[in-house]
Amino acid sequence: MKETILDYTEKLGLGIGIKGLFNIQFIVDANEQVYIIEVNPRSSRTVPFLSKATGYSLADIGTLAILGVSLREQGITERYPKEKTRYYVKCPAFSFSKLRGMDAYLSPEMKSTGEAIGYDDKLHRAAFKALIASGLTLKNYGTIVVSVADEDKEETIPLIRRFYNMGFNIEASTLTGEVLREHGIRTRIRHKPSEGSEEILDSIRAGYVSYVINTRAILSGVHYGDGVAIRRVAAQNNVVMLTSLDTVRMLLDVLEEVTMGISTIDAK
């Protein structure tokens, strides 16, 4: 039996379906019946990226497989090709500053307008290159503005502590700031529009903020308008905005990798 491109993707360990060369969207109704509402071959972005990262021209291989040329006939005989020694990171690029009025919060629908690739012998350096190439200005100094949903506050504390330990100044909305203070992180409280103030927005507009960290309450929708305003002002003022704590964690790994440590002089 001749092998197909799907067999090949499995050999590469790329998988198929929701985590491979196809993007599949499901919906589950009230009776727990599962429906497939969309299947997209991810050829415009994923296939070129995988081709660069693996060294295999997947489009050519797939086309020949469709035409009846087996993988063996194409010279592909190894079940698991030798992995490259470099790391490859793909980073989305956004144009929120150009699309005024659009909420910059990331959700399942596609909002990126491009992508960039970074590669290096070390993962953190590859990520750093990809982020820079995507248009972000990464700083290892400055001020962080934080306003996160209640369900994210506990997870946020150790992340903000890492920023604080690197020397960043911390500003936060009222409830987030109180939690950070309770855990020993020196924080300046900035009030939000729902509190009758634009302090937190004015901080972002002032030009000294390096990063804005804002997450949305998924279920309650509490203070939804505040989040929209914060994200919009950050986009309009070209301040790097992070709406996922996983992304914040990755950014911290990068910053800690490229930041020179400082220690006190031993007086002994």
Summarize it.
With 268 residues, the protein is α/β, with parallel strands linked by helices. Helices cover 34% and strands 18% of the residues.
What is the topology?
Blueprint: H1 5-11, E1 22-28, E2 34-41, H2 46-54, H3 58-66, E3 87-93, E4 114-120, H4 123-133, E5 143-147, H5 153-165, E6 169-172, H6 174-182, E7 188-189, H7 199-205, E8 209-214, H8 224-236, E9 240-242, H9 245-258
Parallel strand pairs: 5-6, 5-8, 6-7, 8-9
Antiparallel strand pairs: 1-2, 3-4
Task: From the structure above, extract its key features.
268 residues; alpha/beta; 5-stranded parallel sheet; two-stranded antiparallel ribbon; globular
Description:
The chain has 268 residues and is of the alpha/beta class. The model is unreliable at 1-19 (pLDDT under 50). α5 links the parallel β5 (143-147) and β6 (169-172). It has helices spanning 5-11, 46-54, 58-66, 123-133, 153-165, 174-182, 199-205, 224-236, 245-258, and strands at residues 22-28, 34-41, 87-93, 114-120, 143-147, 169-172, 188-189, 209-214, 240-242. The protein is built from nine helices and nine strands. Strands 7-6-5-8-9 form a five-stranded parallel sheet, sandwiched between helices. A two-stranded antiparallel ribbon has the order 1-2. Strands 3-4 form a two-stranded antiparallel ribbon. The longest helix is centred in the last third of the chain and has 14 residues, at 245-258. The protein is globular.
